[in-house]
Amino acid sequence: MDLDWDDLRIFLAVARGESLSAAGRVLKRDPATVGRRVSRLEEVVGAPLFARSPQGYGLTDAGQRLLAHAEEAEQAVTRGAEALAGTTGGLSGQVRIGAPDGCANFLLPQVCAQIAAEHPEIELQIVALPRVINLSKREADLAIAVSPPATGRLTVQKITDYHLHLVAARLYLKEHGPVETLADLEGRPIVGYIPDMIFDKELDYLSEIGADRVTLGSNSVSVQLGMLREGGGLGIAHDFALPFARNLRKVLTDEVSLTRSFYLVRHAGDARIERMSRVADMLMSGLKAEVARLEGLT
């Protein structure tokens, strides 16, 4: 059985996008053309690769088996292209990095700017989403996570610990009185995540301060920080974000001190792609240094 790489590339796009239209946008092809190519590939392999439904295209058992081989072919093509490009010491090509918005807003811009300055031909894209990045659908090439995934053919490396504390705006504390004990939190407005939109258990901070409700909520760390800066109440904030919000002050630092971790997640097979491995190494060292630098400013 001869499989054409272009057909496999189309198969991967449909598998990841779960629809012909999504695959067409990625491939810059008409969805009808994508559908015909999928049907042709199914004829070649002699089995349906997708289960069609109003919800989209889901992989059949045969499709699941082909997926792993198609991804291996994709990685081989990428490695071959890099080998033909030669080894100049510089990096080129596109790398998409997915991250929760706290990391994406306050850490990754500095780190990625430094990588780009050292490697002008690289194209780095930051995808900031208030949810877990789906690597299997290639929403990103590399992902930053706050807890290591338990499933999937993935490589997971711990990057660094980071710290969080209870904070409030100085003007809020001046107008509403100091917070000197946990009992002083009773009746105070709390800023935090919308409870039913917390996408990782590590982000559930309410139990840390004994709060049972959020007065001002958002699924975005940046929006929460804005609410706190405007005197909306008290809330948990990343130490590395506080240099960007100079009017916020830590309170109850002995009673409320949280430690969490960042992890770098990528497809296991991508470890053999030099560009991905080098960018991953630079991301890890850069993020670790940037967390230490910003936390040191607080």
UniProtKB/TrEMBL annotation:
A GO molecular-function annotation: DNA-binding transcription factor activity
Cross-referenced SUPFAM superfamilies: Periplasmic binding protein-like II, Winged helix' DNA-binding domain
Pfam families per UniProt: HTH_1, LysR_substrate
UniProt keyword DNA-binding present: yes
Domain HTH lysR-type: 3-60
Key words, A-Z: DNA-binding, Transcription, Transcription regulation
Family: Belongs to the LysR transcriptional regulatory family.
Protein name: Transcriptional regulator, LysR family protein
Organism name: Maritimibacter alkaliphilus HTCC2654
